[in-house]
Amino acid sequence: MFGLLRLVIIGFVILTIIYVGVSLYSRSVRRDKLEREWDEEVKKGDREDFVEDGLDEYENSFRRKLIWLVYIIPVVIVLAIIYMVNIY
Amino acid sequence: MVYVKWTFWITIWLIVGAFFHYTLPQHDIVRIVNTYEEREELGDWTRIFWATPDDQSANLINRDVQFIQAVTPEGKAKVYRNEDTGWHWPPYFKFDTANLYTEANDAKSTKENPEWYAITHYGWRNEYWTVFPNAVAIKRVDGPDATIIPWLNILILTLFFALIWAVRVRWIRFRQARIDPVLEDIEDGWDAAGDRIAEKRGRVRRWLDSWKSKK
């Protein structure tokens, strides 16, 4: 069972690094998009406020929650492999 | 510089290729002949080619290993080890070694009355290092020329190359947006400094250019 523990700990650390990386990357892509939107379409009001509002909205969006798949998909794959190799 | 670059990338891709060739599942169509168990010495570097079925076995210098002997339709001998991979690498999560051994024993057939099986396995066979591929599953097939499409390998390799491509595209974009302008700034500074350092600049600039993306 120590093997399982090791897998869980190492897996958790690696997936957390990926999760944080993807979160930061996704947020920066959203920021670029909002900035471009303001520059090309909105052009009124405070640019910084517009971007911050957009990012707040993004924080609560479904897209943002999809990043949790970074944790969910590997666990599902491992369970599927265990089932396919040992039981199916 | 060109040779260093090529050597570097060829080496990297050979390692990646070897890694996938060792780790991904492959299928052999065989007739199972026999099974046996043998005490294996695990004390030298070839230890990396044996599995670690459980936590105690990590420290053992020898232990019994099960083997499955088979023959291909062409009459070539194939020997597979049958070991749990447990929670260790590669991630097959195989715990049913004893069941597989039973199935393999049940699947034996003679040359006169052959039954053909697809053995899923990973790993390499090397007679000189006493290295065996690890059998993961066996499945009855219709005949010696049954075709098996490796869907899983197609999926994994497609995803892998998609990932490489995605990272590469972003790196090139990043280089054009952030690194090239800085290098051009430096170059402009050099140009302003005149010809006194012209000879030196030739060398440094060539090095700087090697960082730039090809336009």
Question: What structural keywords apply?
Answer:
heterodimer; A: about 90 residues; mainly alpha; 4 helices; about 90% helix; about 0% strand; elongated; B: about 220 residues; alpha+beta; 2 domains; five-stranded antiparallel beta sheet; 5 strands; about 40% helix; about 20% strand; transmembrane helix (chain B); Phage_phiNM3_A0EWY4 (chain B); DUF1523 family protein (chain B); transmembrane (chain B)
Seen as an oligomer or otherwise, the chain set is: heterodimer
Radius of gyration of chain B, in Å, reads: 26 Å
The main pleated sheet of chain B reads as: 5 strands, antiparallel
Q: Structural class per helix/strand content of chain A?
A: mainly alpha
Strand arrangement, major sheet of chain B: 3-2-1-4-5
Shape of chain B: elongated
List low-pLDDT spans of chain A: none
Largest interface (CB < 8 Å): A-B, 11 and 15 residues
Number of helices of chain A: 4
Distance separating the two termini of chain B:
19 Å
| Low-confidence parts of chain B | none
Number of strands of chain B: 5
Keywords (chain B): Membrane, Transmembrane, Transmembrane helix
Protein name (chain B): DUF1523 family protein
Transmembrane segments (chain B): 6-24, 148-167
Organism (chain B): Thalassobius vesicularis
Topology:
The complex is a heterodimer of chains A (88) and B (215).
Chain A lengths: L1 H41 L4 H13 L2 H4 L3 H19 L1
Helix pairs in contact in A: 1-2
Chain B lengths: L1 H22 L2 E16 L20 E10 L5 E6 L14 H10 L10 E6 L11 E7 L10 H42 L5 H12 L6
Folded structure, characterized:
The complex is a heterodimer of chains A (88) and B (215). By secondary structure, chain A is an all-alpha fold. Chain A has four helices and no strands. Chain A has helices at 2-42, 47-59, 62-65, 69-87. Chain A is elongated. Chain A starts with a helix and ends with a helix. Chain B is of the alpha+beta class and 215 residues long. Chain B folds into two domains: 2-148, no CATH class; 155-209. Chain B has four helices and five strands, in the order αβββαββαα. Chain B starts with a helix and ends in a 6-residue tail after the last helix. The model of chain B has no long low-confidence stretch (mean pLDDT 90). The A-B interface holds A 1-4, 6-7, 78, 81-82, 85-86 and B 52, 54-55, 86-88, 91-96, 99, 136-137.
